[in-house]
Design brief:
The complex is a heterodimer of chains A (121) and B (384). Chain A is built from 1 helix and 8 strands. With 121 residues, chain A is mostly beta strands. Chain A has one domain. In chain A, the strands form 2 sheets. In chain A, strands 6-5-4-7-8 form a 5-stranded antiparallel beta sheet, with helices on one face. In chain A, 37% of the residues are buried. The two termini of chain B are 19 Å apart. Chain B is built from 13 helices and 12 strands. A 10-stranded mixed beta sheet of chain B has the order 3-2-4-7-1-8-12-11-9-10, sandwiched between helices. With 384 residues, chain B is of the alpha/beta class. The chains are: A mainly beta (121), B alpha/beta (384). At the A-B interface, strand 4, strand 5 and strand 6 of A face helix 4, helix 5 and strand 5 of B.
Chain lengths: 121, 384
């Protein structure tokens, strides 16, 4: 089984480590053990570009612990290009919805204590 | 399967409570036992729902509650399923009576968190998300529902004012509920002018962090007929699950677990959504009530907004949604909420709901989920 560490190492260089079902081809994030579509346990690693568009997001002004200095910031759900996958993460320095229209192009740029880091392309 | 009934119900006021987690659990449990007209020795099992007992220095709540009820020998089960703990616990209680393991059981839900402050609760509640992708990337619970809201508003051309109308309606109902946490009427401007918590959601789009406890007594129909004239029957019970993280769902504006649980409950009850007179639904945030009432089949996808604008979900509208005030106004002690919804249905169907009575109601539905709907239970009740 692949470790989360490997997933994180890929995120640090802007990539997404996915698992492609060897039976039906369904793509999953690396944290899945069985295919959500067909129940198969066989996967092959597929590394894809961490690029996509904003599916939805929020701008947080009342943060959980550890994010006090980052307020306001966005938490984003991103549609990954050329796949049906979505992935979510943290985006700094977003103050107003004007700063981030839905559908705008974004990319993964790293991973740190804020989780997966997403920036505008 | 045995038919299962609810013969007693009790609840503390929801809000900022001074008494300990055990004290409030006992207050609700004793009220339920007295309401049922039974003695504690008739209880054969306890189902105890709670999430953050650790905040009030007590976990393993079941044996402590049973001991204080004078029945330490009676087995109990402690259940955590985030904000849906109460309904999941109710389901386990229901299933065990239906299966014939027990004739009479107690289901008590409790939460005591307000003394910890907003940062503690915001942080600990975020642990109910799929933490690696959500809480661990800065998403608060209001933030997760705000993300659903932004997608919903864009997809269905709804506005922040529409969301505010849900809050105003639920506060109108909660104003009539003596046990509600936020027992005051509010206006659309109050909501729109309240502080932004996680855009587009503002403070008054959010339910409060509440303390509170609720309890019900479930029993076999045979026992109910022999011991009570004041009971309701459970006619449907369904459960469902969703991908834990929002990113894993086909549609961000639909909660799969609600649909799965509702379909199972409707099928068991042999009814359709049109037969439901009122529903207590999981309105942790205003957006959730719109999504819930669509996923439960009361309105087509995207049409809940129009229903709210037309007042169809108000008390004694086409279908009364959250006559208790809902999580929004009545409050949301997360381990108690699902049981509290059953208390409301019991009160409504046995003539104890006072000014907020839904007229001529025969069938009530409860809908309660955990986190952003990763876990869900739906129950349907009928007056007898």
């Amino acid at each position: 089984m692949l470790s989360k560490e490997e997933f994180i190492n890929n995120a640090k260089v802007g990539k997404i480590l996915t698992r492609k079902c060897t039976k039906c081809g369904h793509l999953h994030l690396v944290t899945t053990y069985f295919c959500q579509n067909c129940g198969n346990a066989g996967f092959e690693n597929v590394i894809i570009e961490g690029k996509g568009t904003v599916a939805t997001y929020t701008i947080i002004t009342v943060p959980p612990e550890g994010y006090e200095k980052d307020v306001p910031y966005a938490w984003i759900v991103m549609n990954v290009d050329n796949s049906e996958l979505r992935i979510s993460g943290f985006m700094a320095n977003i103050k107003s919805p004007v700063d981030l229209p839905l559908g705008i192009k974004v990319k993964i740029t790293g991973y740190d204590e804020h989780g997966i880091i997403i920036e505008k392309q | 399967m045995e038919k299962v009934c609810v013969i007693g119900a009790g609840s503390t006021k929801y809000g900022k409570l001074q008494d300990s987690i055990i004290d409030i659990a006992l207050q609700a449990s004793v009220e339920a036992i007295e309401s049922a007209g039974i003695g504690p020795k008739q209880i054969q099992a306890g189902y105890i729902s709670n999430v953050f007992g650790i905040a009030d220095k007590q976990v393993h709540l079941g044996p402590v509650i049973m001991s204080n009820l004078g029945i330490p020998e009676v087995p109990s089960l402690s259940i955590e399923s985030a904000c849906g703990s109460g309904s999941v616990s109710f389901r386990e209680a229901y299933a065990n009576v239906a299966a014939g393991f027990y004739d009479v059981v107690l289901a008590t839900g409790i939460e005591k968190v307000t003394h910890t402050g907003t940062e503690w609760t915001t942080t600990y509640f975020s642990y109910c998300s799929d933490f690696f992708y959500e809480g661990g990337a800065g998403a608060s619970f209001p933030g997760l529902f705000a993300s659903m809201a932004r997608a919903y508003l864009a997809e269905f051309k709804a506005t922040e004012e529409d969301l505010a109308m849900v809050a105003v309606k639920n506060h109108d109902n909660g104003y009539l509920n003596p046990k509600a946490h936020l027992r005051k009427k509010i206006t659309i401007d109050d909501v729109l002018n309240s502080a932004v918590v996680a855009s587009p959601l503002k403070l008054y789009d959010c339910c409060p962090f509440s303390d509170g406890a609720s309890a019900v007594i479930l029993c076999s129909e045979k026992f109910a007929k022999a011991h009570s004239k004041n009971y309701i029957e459970v006619i449907g019970s369904g459960r469902g699950g969703s991908p834990a993280a929002l990113q894993g769902r086909e549609h961000i504006t639909t909660i799969p677990s609600t649909k799965i649980a509702a379909q199972a409950a409707y099928k068991m009850a042999g009814i359709t959504p049109k037969d439901v007179d009122f529903a207590e639904v999981h309105d942790c945030f205003t957006i959730a009530e719109l999504v819930d009432t669509e996923d439960l089949g009361f309105f087509e996808k995207g049409k809940a907004v129009q229903a709210v604008r037309e007042g169809r979900t108000r008390l004694n509208g086409d279908i009364s949604i959250n006559p208790s005030g809902g999580l929004k106004s009545k409050g949301h002690p997360i381990g108690a909420t699902g049981i509290g919804q059953v208390v409301e249905v019991f009160d409504q169907l046995t003539g104890k709901a006072g000014e907020r009575t839904v007229k001529d109601a025969k069938i009530g539905l409860t809908h309660n989920f955990g986190a952003t709907g990763a876990s869900c239970a739906v129950h349907i009740f009928k007056s007898v």
